[in-house]
Amino acid sequence: MLLLSLTCSGQQIVRVLNTSQTNHLIIMQIAIIGTGNVGGALATKWANAGHTILLGTQDTSSFKGKHLLSNPNTSVHTIAEAVQQAELVLLATPAPAAIAVAQSLGDTSGKIIIDAMNVVMNRGPQGFSNTADAILANTNTKDVVKCFNTTGFNNMQDTNYDGVALDAFVAGDSVRGKDAAKQLAKDAGFAECYDVGGNDRFNLMEQFAFFWINLAMFQGMGREIGFKLLKR
Ligand SMILES: NC(=O)c1ccc[n+]([C@@H]2O[C@H](COP(=O)([O-])OP(=O)(O)OC[C@H]3O[C@@H](n4cnc5c(N)ncnc54)[C@H](OP(=O)(O)O)[C@@H]3O)[C@@H](O)[C@H]2O)c1
Question: What is the model's pTM?
Fold first, then answer.
């Protein structure tokens, strides 16, 4: 196993090259803002994959997902402290709070933000049709991508359907943001993370999420369904 230190946006990244399995893992410092269903599922997967997880909460003594502190490599902080120590931030709070949450992050310059939120039934950040545009307008990073919003949290806890792993999807103009999201999707157990396009596809990603919600909830199929892209 070979360890290399790289520098990215002033933060140290450790690249772990597992020569015996010919695959590699880039260990990241990840702030999770919103430690409920989605944030909790991904925090657990990423902690178990070896990433450092910084839970950022409004009240560090009382928050949803307190049990996550028994995961490896996991600690709790104020939101600004978690973001300050992280190179990548996952936002998984209710969509109506997106502007307030974005404004609470502190200095995000050079940091990647992955937005997992969805405006559902018109409940979202005022003045925006999707949460990622609200984050871009209220932070000082341009590296905002949308990922992990298109399927249920249960599918993040368990991506496996009879031996076949689900796929994930990502959109945004930031190439480094999409590269990080693609790695993290695989670290969470998704088979692939397909590039859906740039920032102009943020709305499409939320519509795709609503397609899943529609089947699962309104058409009565239940949460144990998910998407897999077939190719030939
Ligand atoms: N549920 C799903 O299957 C699913 C799937 C894909 C995407 N999504 C999207 O993901 C987001 C989160 O959904 P969820 O089901 O994980 O929600 P959830 O279980 O209700 O968790 C929400 C989290 O957000 C935190 N929060 C609320 N307001 C906040 C604020 N102003 N500042 C900081 N943190 C705040 C809560 O903190 P406290 O502990 O302090 O209350 C809680 O940890 C939503 O936008 C949803 O549309 C959900």
Answer: 0.92
